Amino acid sequence: MLTLPAWAQVLWAAVVPASAQDTRPHPAEIDPAMVEYGAARERIGANLEAALGQCETQAEPARTVCVKEAQGREKVATAELHHQRSPSDASARRLAETRVAVNYEVAREKCNQRQGGDKAACLSRASEEESKARAGIRTGG
């Protein structure tokens, strides 16, 4: 290993600040928004894990609905985070589409718990509501 003479080490220490000599800058010094975004993503993940943990305590028919709801909340929270980070018409539309898709997935899962004609009617109603909501997004309403 190359060692510098004492006078060179003193000169180096005087010219280059100590923080720049041995460490990279903290991410918050680079872009605080990135740190906040990462923390928000971690919170979303932690909320999902907690919700899934609560779902595990439920009996099977309710458990699948609970899991769909938890996953849906995670999808919507992620879409909201992306929209907050870079607001635009396109991200607002994606957020609305995510909400519609999640509502439909949960409704479909709830309908699957039913039997016979009641199940078919429920699925039909859920499909109609999804179509109306998607049409409202396309027309801007």
TrEMBL record:
- Residues covered by region (Disordered): 113-141
| Annotated signal sequence range | 1-20
Q: Which UniProt keywords apply?
A: Signal
> Know the name of this protein?
UrcA family protein
Q: Which species does the entry assign this protein to?
A: Variovorax paradoxus
Q: What is the lineage of its organism?
A: Bacteria, Pseudomonadati, Pseudomonadota, Betaproteobacteria, Burkholderiales
